Structures
1.
Amino acid sequence: MNPIYRTFPIDEKFPFHLVYHATKQLKDEMPDHMHDWYEIVYIYNGKGTFFIDQTFYEMRPGDLFFLPPNVIHRAFPDESNPTTTTAVFFSPKFIRTEGEDETLSPLHVFQQAREKNRFRMPLNKTIRDLATSALDTFHAELRDNRDGHVQIVRYALLLLLLQLSRETEHAVTKPDPNPALAPQWLRDTLAYIDQHPRNDLQLSALCKLVAVSPSHFSRTFRQSVGMTITDYVVAKRLMLAKDRLLATDDHIQQIAQECGFESLTYFHKKFKEHTGHSPLVYRRLHAE
């Protein structure tokens, strides 16, 4: 199954979405998906596994996850003890601060998460209280819908992000080393795909690389990640292409080739299936 490209209601004045204190079984969780907004997930209780980009995390009470845009992710709640979480989604336009002193960007914590491939922050009591208080504020303001609620949500979000960004260098942990979450060969495969998108990433080549039979590889990969290896590779290449489209002025054909697409026609087809737009339209719509 191809990962879902999640979209949110278009509201230029209030590009913010909250899923508050939700307990979900595995059947209620979205399959592998990605989106162009920033996401924060706080774990109140329960347990499970969170697959983010190429890493498997154990979901534990008090954990806070930071998901930058354009990252494949999926939660796998435990069947007998599912997680209760709050998820915050927002467009970077919502917290834009032109003209203000930005010695510390409110998005610093997300930038560090992407650069270090570390998406989880365990919290001390002070920061945990700050985070849960902000989440409660978001919920109350959206529920009551009083005058000024958009501004209050925005400033509460900015305060939370700036406080968390101060803690990033010291609090963001290394990827969970628990081998029970995924076998080492699967971790090695995910890292290889991330580092070598232009290489031959067909099933046969990857099986040879990690010395695993095709049947075992396919079955375990799908059970752990939630999609086939073919769909995952295409999704990762599309994610890279989206980043290149916005970060460079390179020609579409050059980007397609550098991201591992041998056919420009196939790249256009998959890109439009994924985003709903052609690469050129996507670049224009998301240009700063």
2.
Amino acid sequence: MFETATDGIRRWIVGLFAAAIEGTARPEDRHAAIQWLLRSRDILAGDLGWQDKLGALNAQLSARAAASAIASTVVEAVQSYRTSSLPWPMKIALPVTLAAIPLLGVQGAGIAAFGGAIGLPVLLLVFLGTAGITSVLEAVVTNPHSRTGVAIIVAGIVNSEATRRASAAFRQRMAEEAASPLAQPVPEDTAAIRATLLAMNPYDFERHVMSFFEKAGLEAVVTPKSNDYGMDGYARDGDRLIVVQCKRYASDHKVGRPALQQFKTVMADAAAFRGYVVTTSSFSIDAVAYAAEAPGMVLIGMDALLAWHAEDLDIG
């Protein structure tokens, strides 16, 4: 019975956090809140002792105004649990449940002691744990009326080890409004796929290309239509960053060496372990020779792209 009530309370608090994030008016505040939760989850999952974990969680909260505002909303709802829609058994169990959280080797400190000592927001994060925080993020992602799902992916990539060596300016550009990959409908016949790709809207083509990275199990993002920084999408493969440039060209319009030279600069700025140039045409002889001497650069012409439609993408 106690475990059932605890699970119900945890789901309720997950819902409070998700609703608070969704209710934030400014996209940048939602992004900041997501970053806070991602970082808090990393702290809880880390090897630090409880004293250090609590200090790090408090520091994260204090450094982010948006996170503090969302935490305050959740705390107000929790403190008003008696008038909430929680079933009576859960209302009775809530203070007992939070009081039973073992921290720093002390049992039963709960809301009264720890609510004052470390702050109720931190106590709630500890109560949720890594799985609960993940549930908050997933709840936001699965909201069909929200674009926050993409923001979560972006925040996860920008704050990961994969971008640690990227320039600050590059990370800032990555955090700009982005879109999720989207595979476009294509026929089964190879010749018909070729014709469909050549006729595809350039932005739809970018989303289509990035869908192969997503299908391969990577976190993948498409950059804004108006971007002018030399990449159309990026993906994370563990601690490795991949940048992608798409060129939906006519069959007789080959990608030349100058375009690859510019893209190499993007790869360097991103500290990417690999960069893909994907086109519906092919590459000039000079371009192929240049890519052969550029570590991590991969050229995908029409034939290789058609192969992606028949086989799963292998990042290697």
3.
Amino acid sequence: MDRRDPVELRLVRAFVVLAEELNFGRAAERLHVTQPALSAQLRQMEARLGFPLFERSTRRVALTAQGAALLPHARALVSESGRFAQAVAQMQPRPQRRVVLGAALYTLEIRERQMLLEAFFERYPDAPITVLPLWQREVARALLRGEADLALMLGVAAPLAQWEAEPIAEVIFPETLPRLVLRRREAGLLVPKESPLAAHTVIPAAALEGVAVAMVGPTHGSAILGPLRAALDRGGARTIVPPEPHAIGVERYGRQFRMPAVSLGWFNTGEDGDPDMVRRPLEGLELVTEFSLVGSSGALSPAAALLWDEARRQFPDARLVEGRI
């Protein structure tokens, strides 16, 4: 093979992504190929160049000296190809279809949402993406119908039959959809600092006997309400559902009336900077919610793939969960 032949851009892109990840599994996910296909691409590029780009072992992947020296040039080439593609898109008579990203309004203050979208639009200011502030139930329905490309969703993934059987459940979503789990957090109680409960590292169930606790309402779905009710009933708590029974309203109610309140842990309350409330785990409560980037069942468009890749870049520990039928 003549080494003076140009190297295909897809091989250069594969080299850059693997150099950034230093992990074949994560790199393959970013490139939307299998690990064997990625390995074959790297072998093809190394054969074309005539020298190895990576040192591989069963435990680690590392750049060779030649690979490290070539990486800045490869990045420049990939970046330039992206600018070329944008220039072509601007010249085309029909505009590129805009990507629809669904995200409920109550996720606005979630740090992970802010971190992802700010980084994405900083990197791709002209990306054809529209963020729709739909209710999460509407977002999930749009994904299932192919009317949305991606969504940022908060809550618990549930079987499709369960999701369909609970038409008012807002904080569950169908596990049939593929998703990238950005963060997971344990539910607990938001407690006034002056409350005796605040002295516990983990609140014992018995300490809730007769205590009034602000509780979330039925729109959270059985996957969330079931574990919460079981833990609070076990301790003998007296639950109160406030007029605003969503998670933010319940935390606000607890703060206003100086009482413990159920907390899913996503709204920056009870942390070190909070002046008068603390978050505490509750003994026997086994409930974890997640904040995920969720896809539709179809293939990602180029712009949607850029957002998916940015999520992997911002959250390197994110877990990919394939859709379950």
